From TrEMBL:
One of its GO terms (molecular function) is metal ion binding. Pfam families: Hemerythrin. It comes from Propionispora vibrioides. Belongs to the hemerythrin family. Residues 14-131 form the Hemerythrin-like domain. Keywords: Iron, Metal-binding. This is Hemerythrin. Gene3D superfamilies: Hemerythrin-like.
């Protein structure tokens, strides 16, 4: 079951950005799948791999989005960039020792944070990019 199901309302109308947002939803859903997999008793390596992928893809996505904003003279560029930096800092602050000790609890926290941030950011901030 997908926790972060892509909906048409998340589309901002910029094809490359929408495609990258869909990829972020796929990564979030892999976190959910790992969390729900009762056959994997030690999820540490899987969690680290997904968090690493999330971090790398998010940096790539934010760079593309920020380049788009600069190219098109987006007036809220700096405040938007700060939101991106805050997200990256949060992901960089993941405590791998907590993951090792309380895997499902910590994975749930990460999942909730990423899913909530992604949907809220798309609907409130990224939608403004299409209005430029």
């Amino acid at each position: 079951m997908a926790i972060a199901k892509w909906k048409d309302e998340y589309s901002i109308g910029i094809p490359e950005v929408d495609k990258q947002h869909m990829k972020l939803f796929e990564i979030v859903n892999r976190i959910q799948e790992l969390l729900c997999d009762e056959f994997i008793t030690d999820k540490y390596d899987g969690i680290v791999a997904i968090i690493t992928e999330l971090k790398e893809y998010t940096i790539y996505h934010f760079k593309m989005e920020e380049d788009y904003m600069l190219k098109n003279g987006y007036k809220k560029f700096f405040s938007h960039k700060v939101m991106h930096q805050d997200f990256i800092e949060k992901i960089n602050a993941v405590d791998y020792s907590k993951i090792d000790n309380e895997q499902n609890k910590y994975l749930n926290e990460i999942l909730y944070f990423v899913c909530d941030w992604l949907i809220t950011h798309i609907l409130k901030e990224d939608k403004l990019l299409a209005e430029m």
